[in-house]
């Protein structure tokens, strides 16, 4: 499991063996069964997770008990409930395994210490945070300015592995459309 993380890191930046060992030593290994929660709404998010295998979703539930998926994470992706992780306040979101999933976890304190002590890791994390912010802005813009068909096509293009692994109703939730609407879009597109 740690080898997957090591390969990920070395593909992104130059790390010494000692730095890699330090990053690995700070990680907790956790195995989640399908439908098991990494975080439940109302709990404080104490970890940032790196997905070694499997998939997760981060979602919030509205007053009518409708789930709204904010993001997915598959192998070599990071996930956390950022607001709770940053502030220490109870989480508004829930993180759930969509498949049997293996993650590496770091506490906020450990993660911050690793960023301070390993410049390449700090640089990598800053780059990832910037890309995540940009992706969220683009997703917001797309959701308010593009029709459902275009949102689906952009989703398939951006995340070609997701639509085969993630249930249709969850993709619909992520796109902000009903399952029926997404089924019509897929039928009209003649693929996926």
UniProtKB/TrEMBL annotation:
Where are the membrane-spanning stretches?
A: none
**Do you know which InterPro entries this protein is assigned to?**
cNMP-bd_dom, cNMP-bd_dom_sf, RmlC-like_jellyroll
Pfam families in alphabetical order: cNMP_binding (PF00027)
UniProt-listed CDD domains: CAP_ED (cd00038)
Annotated Cyclic nucleotide-binding domain residues: 36-114
Could you tell me what this protein is called?
Crp/Fnr family transcriptional regulator
Q: What is the lineage of its organism?
A: Bacteria, Pseudomonadati, Bacteroidota, Cytophagia, Cytophagales
